[in-house]
Design brief:
The chain has two domains: 1-39; 44-85, no CATH class. It has four helices and no strands. The protein has helices spanning 11-38, 42-49, 53-66, 71-82. Helix 3 (53-66) runs antiparallel to helix 4. The protein is rod-shaped and about 90 Å long. The mean pLDDT is 82.
Length: 85
């Protein structure tokens, strides 16, 4: 109507719009896949947040060395920490 040929961009406009639409939806799908892959799985998330056995034993040793717990409590807790789950 206001352009030079009366039919705007013609066939080239349709091709550009189709390519842009494919690029847009491809980007959206890629973003969704990346977000889903970066989320921690249920079996990974809990172990990563939990302190390791060695950290717990190190803290127990420090508490015993400072005199916060006696030998009986120290031995009982160390045995509990070393027990397989």
């Amino acid at each position: 109507m206001y352009g030079w040929g009366g039919d705007s961009w013609g066939m080239g406009g349709w091709i550009v719009m189709a390519v842009l639409m494919v690029l847009f939806w491809g980007g959206v799908i890629t973003l969704v896949i990346v977000v889903l892959l970066r989320r921690p799985r249920s079996d990974q998330g809990t172990t990563a947040l939990r302190p390791s056995h060695h950290d717990a034993e190190r803290i127990l040793n420090e508490r015993f060395a400072r005199g916060e717990i006696d030998e009986t409590e120290y031995l009982a807790r160390r045995t509990a920490l070393r027990r397989p789950e």
